[in-house]
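Internal QA ticket QA-208
Title: Verify multi-chain structure generation after dependency bump
Assignee: T.L.

Test input:
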Amino acid sequence: MSAGITGFVSWASGGIAVNAPARGAAKGRLGEWAEAPPLSKIHPRARRPHPTSRQLVQLANALLGERRIEGLGLVLGTAAGCAQPDREFQAELDAKGWPLGGPSLFVYTLPTAAAGELSIAIGATGPLLTVNAGTASGLLAVARGLEWVATGRCPAALVCSAEQGVENEQVAMFLIEREAGRGATGNSGFADPPSAAAGDALELTRALAAAAPSRLISIDPLGYWAALELEAAR
Amino acid sequence: MRVAISRAGAVTAHGAGVPALEKALRDAQTAVRPLTRFDPTGLCSTLAAESPVVTTGSRPDGLLSLAADEALAGLDLKPDARRGLMIGTTKGRLADVLERRTDDPFAGLCAEFARRVGARGPVRTLGAACASSSAALGEAFDALQLGQCDEVIVAGVEALHRFVYSGFHALKALSPEPARPFDAQRKGLSMGEAAVVLLLESEERARAHGRKVLAYLDGYGLAMDAHDQTAPHPKGAGLQSACRQAMARAGWEPKTVGRYHAHGTATPHNDRMESAACEALFGPRGVPLTAAKGSVGHTLGAAGALDALICGLALRRRELWAVTNLVEVDPALTVAPVRERQRHEPPTALVATAGFGGVNTSLALSAGDAP
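Actual output:
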């Protein structure tokens, strides 16, 4: 069974891109995305999600619209996924006292919380994982999503590479489906990479936008690496 | 290929070493005691299953190192691209994030451990809330089945931290007395800390190296509730799905399952949800239920690997171990918690975990060689 990437959305300082190269130069941070759809319209079950979770829901909406996929899997690759909620909760404890932290904020200190919020918002009932391999996390997440779909673990997977609330915010989200084309193959590991080249999920977005065959390798200073062989769909 | 768990090491509130853990669980002893690591004044519990082992430097690194000493003693750990490492944890080096030494609490912990154990194949940290190290076992299962490596070291680690303890206080989830899973008077969970290190490889490879098999990992399932961040689906929809996936991958039917090893946090929501899921899978009181968190506390990201180890130890003895601290089973539940140690066949189990965000995992375990 083959699997391929059928759609993507990305956010970086240059702007938002949905299934096409980014146009223009949107300014500001993801949290200041003025055109973001209101949460009440796209996530009826939302209570008070942390901004890092809310923004993933909004980007997923940009990619999926009202489409829902039975048994959809979710993989989130992130290095600093919960750093911002961690520090906010600690600041709350420092300010109010240890017994007076807010339960709703504490929930979002888990690195899985953002992916969990996505699953609730879009009704995804397949497998869910947050993966960390340093700065190779995003590419590794794509590799695992491709393997899940190719091996029949789920019919489709929504894969996110997200670093939010940090200096250089970047989010890339991919929809992976069965038999969508020749697709891509992935691998990941710790050391001895096949070659040295920088790459990440945003590079993958650019390669997809260009629809060109690519080999993407992401290497982390700690020694993690992830690699993807991409082939343009026929 | 049949996946075997062939080596194990553990540091828990019962001390360092698998033998201490096994003895305590067989005798249904609790390690939930007054906290010493930090001052719990003002919080709704003063108890935790705190490990008595002394570590220096980063606590999770220290716990992990001790568990690895036991699990990997005598193995040739020269760097090997066919050796993988999967770590499950929820907060990793949390202290480093709070003290702004890094934004990433996981990569350094995992990379340093990978260097120590010579893992140069697939290496990653998995987050699935309280199901994190079960998910790590599942990732290892996949990596072996896909031929990506010959052996995978799986670790679950979580250190007690006041930050997390305060968070569970805020959620009103902590019990003022040692946790009593499935008891009519249960009042919530007891937090714990632990590190577990397991070696997974094919049965053939374990035999070829002269290693005994502790347990077989025959199947694995992972599914979401898509219901709520903290409350489980009332009927355990995601957990049922995960259990069915695990059975399907193992080639099992519900009647193949000899026991259900519960997540069993002792919160009213969780135990009710697991009862509903069990009834849907096996019928009312259909299989014996075991649970360990009254003894070792809830070790969050380490819980899945720790439960798999405990269940595997009981399976290989063909025994059921009593649910620690259980006095009177909640009559509203339709499960059959084990009240005293007893012999039992068949030695097969589903090991369940459920986490925030609605993540659920299930492991299909079979007994390995007798001790």
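Spot checks passed. The two ends of chain B are 23 Å apart (CA to CA).
Status: verified.
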